[in-house]
Amino acid sequence: MDTIIIDGLSFALPLFIMAIGGIYSERSGVTNLAIEGLQGFGAFFGALFTVLIASFFNIPLQKLLYLALFLSMLGGMLFAMIHALLCIKFKANQVISGVVINILAMSLTVFLTTQINSMVFGEMSDKFQIGTSPRFTIGGLADLPVVGAIFKSIYPFEIVIIFIAILAAYLLNKTKFGLRLKACGDNPQAVDAAGVNVSRVRFIAVMISGALSGLGGIAFAYSISTNFSPAIYMGYGYLAIAALIFGNWKVLPTLGACLLFGFARSGGYFIAYILKMSSTFSDLIMILPYVLTLLLLMFFSKTNRPPRALGEIYDKGKR
Amino acid sequence: MKNNKKEKAKNKGIKKAVFKLLGDEKRQKITIPIFLIFLSFFVASIMILMLGKNPLAAFYNLFQGAGIFPKASYAGYKSMLTDFLTLLNYMTPLVFASLAVAVALKGGLFNIGVSGQMLLSGYFATIIIGYSGLDAFLAKPLVLVVGIIAGGMLGGLVGLLKYRFNINEVVSSIMFNYIIQYVLSFFIHSYHIDPVSRQSANVSHASRLTLTNVELFGLKMDLSIGFIIAIVLAIVLKYFLDRSRIGFEIKAVGSNSKAASYAGINVGKTMVFTMALSGAFAGLAGVTYYLGYYSSIQPRVLPSMGFDAIAVALLGSANPYGIIASSFIISIIDKGSTYMSSIAGVRQEIASVITGLILLFSASSSYIEYKIRVNKDKFGYEPGKELDK
After folding, report:
1. What is the pLDDT of residues B66-90, one digit of tens each?
2. Is A110 close to B364, i.e. CB distance below 8 A?
């Protein structure tokens, strides 16, 4: 039972932070299907520089954990600039741009990972070993029945994510910047008339989205595989998008959707483990979050209300 | 992109020359994609230069590997012609897959599920026809039919989910991609696995859409039957989209669904039909891929071709003729990369980077068109006239 909660949380929280990134971008009016690519590129960027720094300065990888998180956010932000440029400056179709970013991120990171591995480390590998993340347990609280598992073997990134998520929710809902951002997604003309630069707000929103996706990506890299490899492109970015659609583009309901995904996944693995199913059956369990996504979308997509100007290129002259 | 822009800003002469080369609006349909390809190769060659390799030699190897230029030496029964035929064999599913993306794009939909639709139709054709031992005359057409039905049903389902439940087709088709990938991996591992190759067991020779090792002129070549079908269908599709009522409705819904609905077009029905048609093309891509170019299915892997097809379709501006041309180019990049990496020592993965760059630039092609329109006034350029200095 504990493993369901522990694994569920370590899956749900990275998903959640990526979904918040998606909320930022989409509430500002820019469709962001690029989350998948942004999280991969962010994780690649963080892993690359962590590995390089660790080998040049002989620092053990474990000590660079927070640096890796920060660098991944930076990497995601940099790559998100391409999406922002394409969608806002070059007026490209936002759906196409998102998909293009994903494909480019995948091919670029795979190429660069193998290339850098062979050039710098002399290895034929498509992975960066970033080391295992330390985990800790909060004494006292962990002894509580059932809920105690929440406080058992926590990844440090989970705390970082919760902290940043609260900050992001505050920024979005309580500050002038956040309110303007949301207005850009509903009625950009009005925001423009109020003297705010719509393009700039959207650009910043997409960059924030990239940073948060990068954080989610490196968190997956730590929790699922302890390395960066092309296996990071598992479609979790799209799960995050699905989560924010159920969450009706609001932060708290999105958290609920993410937790549901996390527990469905860890619960599925747990059942497979108890029933001692062979590894071929793990393929069937892998589909649980995806099937759940489709089913939930069927029930929720009709009634929810996306930002009104979502996906529209802002045109000053339009009435 | 940034570099290119800076350069342009610095150097008006280059800018003028580029715009002059791109020509008037009619010519731009061809010149802009060519310009984008050159731009992608230019960026790729900077990357290759940074690795300390000669980009021109690498690209020459790329073309050699694809059978466009002769290689230094050939194995027995092989020549430039056989390499070229292999290229066409590889190009066949890519043309179908790109037509699938293009049909959806025309209807204002984005079919990113081509990979999953290919896998599903390839699987059904394999187990129903591929393992059946039917005669070639019966098996080959049936493979096509199964492919069309399986792909079309899945595509139609995605369209239905969009129409009935308002689910974004991109999200739902990606979910289907993963579900199909894992479920079929389960079935292949459980029932159809070849213990040696770790792939599904080979399909019967009679059911394959490519005639392999045909001995002609002392060469052993692979002749793709699907290639001819692909070219014919591309022409039919062009005619269908431009001249038929349904084709017009698809495009009307694609460009403005509200206006289409006021004009009395059933938007939902058209949407479902568009996705089903797109899925059917993806199904054809699947059978020509798994029962043509290959003869087995690798479990747990989605064909990357479904994503390359997006690049092809965008590069060909969703025009069937443009797609034939652009899939030829993308096939060369994909197919020649193995030979390039073995001769020039540049990693094979650069091929997908080039494709990715082409995609990136294609996505901003409308911006280039817009820029040209704006600059036309600035430089006093008129179509058909020489540029004033």
Report:
1. 877 777 767 767 777 888 888 898 9
2. no
Considering only CB atoms, which chain B residues are within 8 Å of A34? none
Which residue in the set A86, A108, A297 is minimally distant from B363, CB to CB? A86
Residues 6+ apart with CB under 8 A from A228: A43, A44, A46, A47, A48, A113, A127, A128, A130, A221
> Which residue pairs, CB below 8 angstroms and at least 24 apart, start in B236-243?
B237/B99, B237/B103, B237/B320, B238/B319, B238/B320, B238/B321, B241/B103, B241/B106, B241/B320
- Is 50 exceeded by the pLDDT of residue A288? yes
Whether B388 has a pLDDT exceeding 50, the answer reads: no
CA distance B78 to B80: 7
Instruction: Give the position of tokens 């929720």.
Output: A300
**DSSP character at residue B191:** I
* Token reading at A37: 């690519």
Q: Pick the residue of B346, B349, B374 with the most A CBs within 10 A to test the interface with A by mutation.
A: B349
Q: How far apart are CA A250 and CA A293, in angstroms?
A: 17
**Cβ–Cβ < 8 Å for A69, A215:** yes
CA distance A145 to chain B (A): 36
For residues B179 and B161, what is the distance between their CA atoms, to the nearest angstrom?
16
CB atoms within 10 A of CB A230: 17
Secondary structure in 3-state letters for A152-176: CCECHHHHHHHHHHHHHHHHHHHCH
Distances (CA, A) of B301 to A80, A118, B110, B173, B306: 27, 25, 22, 16, 12
- Comparing CA positions, the residue from A215, A282, A256, A276 lying closest to residue A21 is A215
Q: Does the pLDDT at position B382 exceed 70? A: no
Check: complex ipTM more than 0.90: no
CA distance B224 to B365: 33
Q: B86: which residues sit within 8 A by CB, 6+ positions away? A: B67, B222, B335
Cross-strand partners of B200: B193
CB atoms within 10 A of CB A244: 31
The closest of A79, A76, A201 to B360, measured between CA atoms, is: A79
What sign for the dihedral angle of Cα A277, A280, A285, A291?
Answer: negative
Strand partners, A272: none
- CA-CA distance, B187 to B173, in Å (whole number)? 21
- Contact (CB<8Å) A280/B175: no
